[in-house]
Amino acid sequence: MLTAIKGNILEALSLDTLGVHPHSYLVLEDGRVAGIYLTLPETMAEAQVTDFGDALILQSFSDMHLHGPQYEYMGTGMDRPLLEWLEAYAFPTEARYADPVYAREKYRTLAHDLIQNGTTRVCMFSSRHTDGTLILMEELEKAGITGYVGKVNMDRDAPDYLRETTEESQKETLRWLEGCKGFTKVKPILTPRFAPSCSDELLTFLGKLKAERDLPVQSHLSENLGEIALVAKLFPDCGQYWEVYDKYGLFDSRTLMAHCVHSDARERAAMSRKGVWPVHCASSNNSLMSGISPVADMLREGQAICLGSDVSGGTTLSMLRTMANSISAAKDRGSMTWDYDQAISIEQAYYMATSAGQTFFGLKLGFPEGELLHAIVLDDTGLPKLPSLTLRDRLLRAAYRLDDRHITAVYSEGIRRR
Ligand code: GUN
Ligand code: FE
Question: Which fold has domain 61-353?
Fold first, then answer.
């Protein structure tokens, strides 16, 4: 069946190129993108059109780093640095997800709220609990969210009530992967929490498992100076943090590394060489006093950076706000030395929030033809109508001023979910 949605369509076609289609039709055949047209071609004249007037039609968001079980306490403990905050807030909360009934209720809310915020693709950490992780995957898939979810591995440097034994971690990871076989849209990603929380034996196991089953990997890298010092102490044979993951075969073109705030030229060169994907988490970097990431430099170097909300180190699920936070953080970094080259543009922020993630999932940029539609409608028509504003200006303003209340439609996998 032919359908179309009509509005001001904006696509992130490259890091610096916004595809702008004013008052155009995004035509779908059975939910798959058939093309974008200013006027409907004759052959498509019978398409059922949903007209969103002067609203913006954007690619939906890919949140490439967040922690499912942490959502419930978002905004709590934001006056503590990373390692203290993990002990005081993250670990006790995650422990509650041993209870499947509790997990189901919380994860259903999270899946609903992600859709409300226009996030239809994710790379997400669960807790270390196998059953809770499978429940999270179920709830995401039911809500229409696609992507990767990982059962967290942590067999050291965590409190007794949450830490797994090495053997348990291995056994449960295999049981979790068995349980993942029923899913079609939400896939498993290996998730060593971060180097300090995994023993050499566990990392060896995960590296082998990755190679055997060709699995992607997600973790944290060089987020915080205290963490980096801890890694140096725990892995004295590794010259730099990234070398820990690399040593165990967990650092390649299917690896997402969250934060990379303190990655120096050498670490960044290693990421480029190996094709590792840094995930920029501006809100969390600020909240946990981790630092300000050199995003503009990393973009200039050609790093494949995506954006992550990092809920709940980050304080918002909204990827609109996450784009605005990224732009603000880049300016903060530049402001310290009057270095305007540290700023990033809305084109870059929108690209990192959408197309960059799509690429990680093996999709083309923008609204790829033949793919099921993932899109949001963002209604900024309540804001002042300044005649000089271009659609680009409106996108930038929307990042700063709009939130889930202004998202009037969300499409995922070709189906309207909101
Ligand atoms: N490093 C290890 N675990 C975490 C976590 O839960 N949040 C953040 N921001 N960093 C981490
Ligand atoms: Fe994180």
Answer: TIM Barrel (3.20.20)
103 strand-pairing partners: none
Q: Whose CA is nearest to atom 8 of ligand 1?
A: 313
Tens digits of residue pLDDT in 132-166: 999 999 999 999 999 999 999 999 999 999 999 99
Classify strands 119-125 and 146-150 as parallel, antiparallel or unpaired.
parallel
**Domain 2-60+364-416 CATH class label:** mainly beta
Q: For residue 259, how far is its CA from the centre of ligand 1 (angstroms)? A: 10
What is the model's pTM? 0.98
CA of 82 to the centre of ligand 1 (A): 7
Express each pLDDT in 281-299 by its tens digit.
999 999 999 999 999 999 9
Assign 336 a pLDDT band (cuts: 50, 70, 90): confident
pLDDT tens figures, 105-127: 999 999 999 999 999 999 999 99
Q: What is the pLDDT of residue 92?
A: 96
User: Using a 6 Å cutoff on CB, does residue 259 contact ligand 1?
Assistant: no
Ligand 1 atom having least distance to the Cα of 281:
9
- Ligand 1 within 6 A of CB of 128: no
Residue-wise burial string across 334-359, b where 16 or more C-beta atoms lie within 10 A, e elsewhere? beeeeeeebebbbbbbbbbbbbbbbb
Residue 94 near residue 102, CB atoms below 8 Å: no
Which residue spans of the chain are classified as CATH 3.20.20.140? 61-353
Q: How far is the CA of 401 from the centre of ligand 2 (A)?
A: 25
